[in-house]
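Morning!

This is the sequence you dropped in the shared folder:
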Amino acid sequence: ALELTDFKNALEQFQNLVEKIIIQKTRESSGLYTKDDDGIDYDKFYTTTRALFGSAVKDQNIQAFFRKIMNNLDEKPEWLEIFGCFKGESDGMPSQKKEKESMILLVSEKQQITHSVVKRKDVIKGIVKVPLLHYTVTASQKGVLTVFTKKRKSFLSYSLYFHQDTAWINGCDFLPNLKYVVAVTESSVILWDYKTKEVKSDGFVLKPMKNSLLCVCTVTMADDLAKDTFLMGDDKGYVYLLTITSDDFIMKQSKAEKESQFKVLDSEAFDIPKRKLHDDWVGKIKYFSALKRFGSCSTDSTNSLVLDDIKRLEDHLPIKEFSVPQGVNAFTYCGKAKVIVTGG
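The structure's back. Tokens below.
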């Protein structure tokens, strides 16, 4: 309790220090500031910050924080940036007997993958871990799908550049039984056979989809090597349930499109139950096998979070929904604590 009180006092003083710097710099730029003994330069900022937080902050983080303030007065950095967010391998952490840990953030070691999977002006829209296979799947907005496989402490990757008109990829997941990567775009569903080693990758495109698909997640149920089920959310508040079998790849495909090995699957040939659960975009969708429930969230203030059985997408019985002012942007479930946590 004493440490917490001390930290709150130190944080308040630090925030006052930052405000004084911003006021000083603003007055300097307008020509109204005259230098005096109360002026704050980097040396004074460094000394004060070090006195407030001690060894919990590092020199490079203090420098970076000060530089951010100087370069953009309108958007000051968040206070927790002064503590940094990552601990490099070189920092060394001798077991659990470190003399004084940072009382603010304890972050585990990270391993950086230096392989570049996106080009300029492209962003990662989805990243999924597949623990049983030691895979990591990523999808970029402009169509780069990548599967990282961890072997002998290094990462191998299989990448696909999927270009379909100007449709952006909005999310991805992994189908564990069929061993495909699934991704959703504004108008279609991509099913990529990442195991194909040919120059032109193999896969399927399910289209057309009437609304813009924004997110996707796999429903992990009883093992059935012949099929996988996944959920999707769109920009009209609908949640879809789709089951794909290995037979679908044979029975329902049409000819491959030009300059692509991807074969088209007609969406009209599939039974795709859907239900409108939100009055705004479906931001995230997840399936929790421990609860045997799916969750979907939206910025809709009335139906902000839905948590129920996937059967509700087919029988249209009342659903369990929760209201949060201004909606929910993210959520997750902690099995150990048995709580659902949301972020708005």
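Headline: The radius of gyration is 25 Å.

More detail when I'm at my desk.
O.
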